[in-house]
Amino acid sequence: MALPSHMQALTFGGRENIVLSTVPTPQVIRPDDVIVKVTCAAICGSDLHPFHGREGGIGKSCTTGHEFVGTVVALGDNVKSLRVGDRVASPFTTNCGNCFYCKSGATCRCSHEQAGGFGWVDDEQMLLPEKDRKANALQGAHAEFVRVPLGDATCMKVPDSVTDEEAILLGDILSTAFFAAENGGVGPGKAVVVVGCGPVGLLSILAVQQLGASKVWAVDSIPDRLAMAASFGAEALNFKACDVLATVRAGTEGRGADVALELVGTSQALRLGFDSIRPGGTVSSIGVNTDAAFPFSPQEAYGKQLTFKCGRCPARHFMEKLMPQLAACPAEARPPYTRVISHRMHLREGVEGYRLFNNREAIKVVLSCA
Description:
By secondary structure, this protein is α/β, with parallel strands linked by helices. The chain is 28% helix and 23% strand.
């Protein structure tokens, strides 16, 4: 199909300012590029870090967003596994599939020069034509079209039995939920504390139960999120209204939980996770924490016999595992992953979507871009 010269997109207008803009439609620049017509895109909690200025490096007028599903509409000459018309999902970072890190499952740490995160072009690079920018300076997916470098390895075909909404969750937050649980060593009989009931936290409740956890506590203070956590099978704890540590210890013969999943990205949440586990327990921290120091000392960690794991989810690696499982599961038997989507809006309503999500009036916002 002939692509339009311009398209609608949400762009970064500076701190706490998202703008609905008309921008040039992306074109194939390199022979391994794929152009995807975005069907739907989602607003992620990590989109709020540059929004609030907690993370720098995004230039004004950069298209935001990294969670998307769509249809292939153009291909570079070197793309072999995809065809125009294929429905695809993507992780939030590009990857080559061939380097040391990709082959070891750490696709989010791909060493290829084109490996990068969507929606991350700095001010200096924004001054250049797209073809002259650094190879990993990528526009985002809150748009009608998005360019995906390393298309063969990055994009994943979506089976007919998997919905767009399921696929968009797999590209980031559902994969992240399973990554958090696996990092924590969750398995049969484990007692787990989930700190933070945002979208990743809520999906983590489902993930740890699928992995066999026998008891799950979910900690937050927002009523609708706690209500959903309870409906997913967790014991919901409002940290402003109850003694979380006493409750967890009472349910574990005084020991504390085996595993804490910290999914907020604040020192307060990380400290609560640390305090809630038993000696010899594990903290799996997935929240993006921009503080300069840990909220517990090396001596405290030693005394706790702590196992601590953190980092970015290798979403493409987890998509390889989870997409076939989801496709094979009858629709009526699938976990209710898409219930975390509280608001379905159009791209042109994206500024309002950001407002709702930032104010915690929405759990998860998905934008239709068709």
